[in-house]
Amino acid sequence: MATRVVDIPSSRMANFLGFQRDPLGFLVDTLPLGEVVSLRTSAFRPTFIVNSPDFVQEILVTQDAAFRKGRSTNVLRRTIGEGLLTSEHHTHRQQKRYLMPVFYKERIQSYANIVVEETEKLADQLREDVPVPMHETMMQLTLGIIARTMFHTELAEEKAELAEAVDDTIRQTAKTLFSPLILPLAVPTAGNRKHKKAIRTLERMVYDVIAKAKERPEVYTDSMLGLLLDTKDESGEPLPDEEIRDQMMTMLLAGHETTANAMGWAWYGLEQNPEAAERLRAELASVDGTGDASAYDLYRELPYAKQVIQETLRLYPPAWMILRETEQAVEMLGESFPANSSFLISPYAIHRNEHVFADAAAFRPERFDQGLNAWPRFAYFPFGGGSRGCIGSQFAMLEAVLILSTLARRFKFVSVEGQGTAIPEPLVSLRIKNGREMVPIRL
């Protein structure tokens, strides 16, 4: 019987150097090789690249109990501790259960107004023909949104400092993830010192907000922080401050940097595709954004704006790679894999499959007119899937669509000349390398 696992033709050293030099290009280049591609690494820790939606579903959904996140989790724990993104098995299920109410539909509807308010504040500050660093601008915007929606906290003067601290932690984490040798955070390298300083900056805000919430819990009732303060562990005791800190740090990093990166790519995609930008403006003109309708009602009336975000997430998924490791030998779809096997799943590469997405490299939001059911379940999965799929995916979509529509009503953004084509930079999430200076043009 034919195997669905093929060996990569290049050598182990060539693979290592190729991935280190250009992770995204390396992963895309393996796409036509086969459904599961063996990198021919150590027999004790074999590594595979997964290109088939069928195998992705087996790993993330059908047999997800047989897998752990592994190395990536160990690195992320240095910053965010044992939060929802890094906890495993029973602890993860328990945390997900107590955090789910944060993303119930009624709560998301109330968050919508905050998203629009914060975005309008930004729009009022933009000056026509004055370039803005789009990545930093979107980072500060989404940081302000996450602080208000999740922590019931207004960030003012410290917003830029906190956004910079988030950026530092992400850069240092990415360097560690791709390094063959992981030095303990206690080793006083320049990178580790910078990382620890950034963590202290974020923790200072987090513990300050926790203290304020304990003094006046009634003010924080409708926030994630209020929910965490009300939550009891399995023994009936309140959650320790350290666990609340871990969940807040998780939301800070996973909950706003990803959306900020996606927005940077959305503005770039619209600039590169004037027809898409024109169709978006036509949709916005047809919807009254100034009447009595709530922000959530507005969101539901913007199908094309949603498609712009969906297409952005197809081409530039913030979670560009998902890592999994087997805890024991596993059989999937007739193929056997030993214990301690590692699997690299790249939404970035899989979303570029020409057999699924015609003209896959092109930014064409209208391809989502037909809905997600037009493709295999895991041919498009920007939020992962299964028990570890992004808990905040619905909020993230709403946030991105409302930021897009609020700003696009008033401005179009044009890149400052001389920057060339935007190049993806695969850090913890996918951003535009060196950022993007863009000029707001008032409509």
Automatic annotation (TrEMBL):
<dbReference type="GO" id="GO:0016705">
    <property type="term" value="F:oxidoreductase activity, acting on paired donors, with incorporation or reduction of molecular oxygen"/>
</dbReference>
<dbReference type="InterPro" id="IPR002401">
    <property type="entry name" value="Cyt_P450_E_grp-I"/>
</dbReference>
<dbReference type="InterPro" id="IPR001128">
    <property type="entry name" value="Cyt_P450"/>
</dbReference>
<dbReference type="Pfam" id="PF00067">
    <property type="entry name" value="p450"/>
</dbReference>
<keyword id="KW-0560">Oxidoreductase</keyword>
<protein>
    <submittedName>
        <fullName>Pyridine nucleotide-disulfide oxidoreductase</fullName>
    </submittedName>
</protein>
<keyword id="KW-0408">Iron</keyword>
<dbReference type="GO" id="GO:0005506">
    <property type="term" value="F:iron ion binding"/>
</dbReference>
<dbReference type="GO" id="GO:0020037">
    <property type="term" value="F:heme binding"/>
</dbReference>
<dbReference type="InterPro" id="IPR017972">
    <property type="entry name" value="Cyt_P450_CS"/>
</dbReference>
<keyword id="KW-0479">Metal-binding</keyword>
<dbReference type="InterPro" id="IPR050196">
    <property type="entry name" value="Cytochrome_P450_Monoox"/>
</dbReference>
<keyword id="KW-0503">Monooxygenase</keyword>
<dbReference type="GO" id="GO:0004497">
    <property type="term" value="F:monooxygenase activity"/>
</dbReference>
<feature type="binding site" description="axial binding residue">
    <location>
        <position position="390"/>
    </location>
    <ligand>
        <name>heme</name>
    </ligand>
</feature>
<comment type="similarity">
    <text>Belongs to the cytochrome P450 family.</text>
</comment>
<keyword id="KW-0349">Heme</keyword>
<dbReference type="InterPro" id="IPR036396">
    <property type="entry name" value="Cyt_P450_sf"/>
</dbReference>
